[in-house]
Design goal:
It contains nine helices and seven strands, in the order βαβαβαβαβαβααβαα. It is α/β, with parallel strands linked by helices.
Length: 255
Amino acid sequence: MLHGQKIVVVMPAYHAEKTLAACHAAIPHDVVDCVLLVDDASDDATVAVAESLGIRTHRHPANRGYGGNQKTCYALALEEGADIVVMLHPDYQYEPKLITAMAAMIASGVYDVVIGSRILGNTAIAGGMPLYKYVFNRALTAVENLLIGSKLSEFHSGYRAFSRSVLETLPLAANSDDFVFDNQMLVQAHAFGQRIGEISCPTKYFPEASEINFHRSVVYGFGVLGTALSYRLWRWGVCSPPFLRTLRDAKVSRT
């Protein structure tokens, strides 16, 4: 716990048998109260490895997608009584030791959402991020900042921490079950006026780490642009996209 707040780490997993043990070992268990893993119908030994490590594990009987996996992760974390939830990919691309710092930024009451940014600190390329992904990341983030009115270093990191109130407030069920879920969630947080902070996080790219291919990256990129454009049109009162509709109904200030 930090400041009396329960810290739960959630791991959305798919084919993570080779990296899970090392990633789990690096988690600061002196601070983390509970680790939950949701396996998205992997056909490898992910579940067996998780159970051998004593991780509370839930398995989807059919693949629901990255976003669908997160929806289950957050629901289980809230049921567990989490005050702060940290999403950590079990492929060991992100540094688990930063969980303490990320959770502390929320436990202090300064931020509601914290992103582990691969761009801050200029370590992405050194960590093995493919050049085309780095360029896409920077370009998409620049466009999103312009359309949304934010100033984040990146929107595309999968390393995030959330306060309980954020997860209870955002209309996550309206988001995609695919990779663009991450992006929609940050746009929702911005639209709701949640305080978003960032921390520099080194990244590691290696054969066993999960990575979407070029085609899926392009599909994701168009989804990101569509999300940002939908937000801008919503701000102008032109449309009411499903993932922001609850915000409009609640008459949330568009700041």
